[in-house]
Amino acid sequence: MARCDQCGNDYDKSFQVMRHGKTWTFDSFECAIQAVAPRCAHCDCPIIGHGLEKDGKIFCCAHCATQKGVRELRDRA
Ligand SMILES: [Zn+2]
Ligand SMILES: [Zn+2]
What we know:
Blueprint: E1 2-3, E2 10-11, E3 15-19, E4 22-26, H1 29-36, E5 52-54, E6 57-59, H2 62-67
Antiparallel strand pairs: 1-2, 3-4, 5-6
The protein binds zinc ion (ZN) (2 copies).
């Protein structure tokens, strides 16, 4: 049994995520995303995939990067 670091739910199928040397416990991916996913520098949505990174800023997609004046990033899809 472990308690979710995000919502406090005590759940027997909780799991752990390690990020920046800290171990988090979550009861769901939703909570994990809320707590540890980076946020897009433009639209502030949580980045679940690889995202795009430039000059220490992270973006969810090439569109958002372009909106912030970053032109050389492109989605690979
Ligand atoms: Zn939770
Ligand atoms: Zn975005």
